[in-house]
Amino acid sequence: MAARLLRGCLRLRPGGWALRPLPARCSHSGGEERLETPSAKKLTDIGIRRIFSSEHDIFRESVRKFFQEEVIPHHAEWEKAGEVSRELWEKAGKQGLLGVNVAERHGGVGGDVYAAAVVWEEQAYSNCTGPGFSLHSNIVMPYIANYGSEEQIKHFIPQMTAGRCIGAIAMTEPGAGSDLQGVRTNARKDGSDWILNGSKVFITNGWLSDVVIVVAVTDREARSPAHGISLFLVENGMKGFIKGRKLHKMGLKAQDTAELFFEDVRLPASALLGEENKGFYYLMRELPQERLLIADLGISASEFMFEETRTYVKQRKAFGKTVAHLQQLFVPQYQEGLFLGVVSQGKCTDWKPIEVTDLQTVQHKLAELKTHICVTRAFVDSCLQLHEAGRLDSATASMAKYWTSELQNSVAYDCVQLHGGWGYMWEFPIAKAYVDARVQPIYGGTNEIMKELIAREIVSDK
After folding, report:
1. Residues 6+ away with beta carbon under 8 Å from 230
2. Which of 140, 142, 89 is nearest to 113 (CA)?
3. Distance (Å, rounded) from C-alpha 170 to C-alpha 203?
4. Which of 125, 58, 66 is nearest to 97 (CA)?
5. How many other C-beta atoms can be found within 10 angstroms of the C-beta atom of residue 277?
6. Model confidence pLDDT, tens digit, residues 119-159
7. Cβ distance 198 to 173 under 8 Å?
8. Per residue in 1-60, pLDDT tens?
């Protein structure tokens, strides 16, 4: 099946499929002649983007088909279970959807950041938030690939690319969220080993995880907390490593989120990821990619919601017209209650009892949404280009994460409103997209912290 889906953009290698190296002519500027596939040409009403090559478009087709065939039909049952199946992970590995932009020499697929973006964008367009592929591939795996020893890379990366080893990262604690310098989980030396104690919460992929990168204090006497933090690779089944309950969330219901506990977990020296007491610096280097990922997921989800709503208002009829063509709705107050009137040729006609909340100029609202989405998409695409060139800084990534997550929630609110009562019904995709959006300003660093990081860069003397 993988050969059929990915033929033309992937090549077979030992252990799975890899993206073909992009030809030199592909500058991602849109100057070359592109092979436009039917749905990649104009995925949404937002228009054609110019950072992708023809090979990326072909890859997008295969990724979209994977989500249509392997994810969407099963997502409702995964929402009830609070986790996706492990079988899905192995299918994703066989299709070359994991570790996409991890170097091939490490056991990854060997694509670029644009190829990785194709996967997480298509997941957003599918409105299926259950599979934790992006965290696994674009947050956890880079730590191992960039800071791990040769033995750690060989042991984990190929298995993670194949979907046989699921990764998670444990930063957040009950008393320390965005403040990474406030973590209390600690590891002390015992001979050549480490003894790990503490707890973590809100850990994505925590329940299914086979390996977890744990942030822990290793030097309480350091001149600052940032100088005394290390990262450890903790594997499932280690004595004292306990997975707590799967947390019941408002949204992202199919994405497993767990509590993790570490009670005198004995770790060999080989479990230390990178250098001792350098963990905080590794986190700071990798967080821009995490925030860019959240930003692109956010704008992609906004594009999805816009398309759902545009289609709905063009089909939904009220007062004999589609909602999209109602110019304006007025709500006068009478003693007997609220009534709706439709403006037609400057006159208010067809008074009827109100059944939905007051709607203002639908066409103008759609125009506002599309404008905000298009402007934000251009910014996020520029961030993707900066990241591919190795020039995405923390402040810019923070701006992207802050702005897109705020926009996503604003778009979600307006799109539910334009759906009326049906937007509040769970069987409508817009309802799920609405609750899933709420976490975006919270995880990956709250938006209040994003503003602090942006402001710090503005007033810096550098």
Report:
1. 187, 216, 217, 218, 272, 273, 274, 275, 276, 277, 278, 279
2. 142
3. 6
4. 66
5. 16
6. 999 999 999 999 999 999 999 999 999 999 999 999 999 99
7. yes
8. 333 334 335 443 444 444 443 333 233 333 433 333 333 344 455 567 889 999 999 999
Which of 290, 303, 355, 368 is an active site residue? 290
Token digits for 270?
Answer: 């080989």
Contacts of 87 (CB under 8 A, 6+ apart): none
Which of 263, 192, 275, 197 has its CA nearest to residue 229? Answer: 275
Distance CA 81, CA 246 (A): 10
CB atoms within 10 A of CB 410: 15
Q: Which two tokens stand for residue 352?
A: 């009827």
Q: Is 290 annotated in the active site? A: yes
Q: Taking the CA of residue 356 as centre, how many other CA atoms within 13 Å lie in the half-sphere pointing to its CB?
A: 18
- b/e code 387-408 from CB counts within 10 Å (16+ = b): bbeeebebbbbbbbbbbbbbbb
Q: What are the respective helix, strand and coil percentages of the chain, to the nearest 5?
A: 50, 20, 35
Burial class (CB in 10 A: 0-12, 13-18, 19+), 89: buried
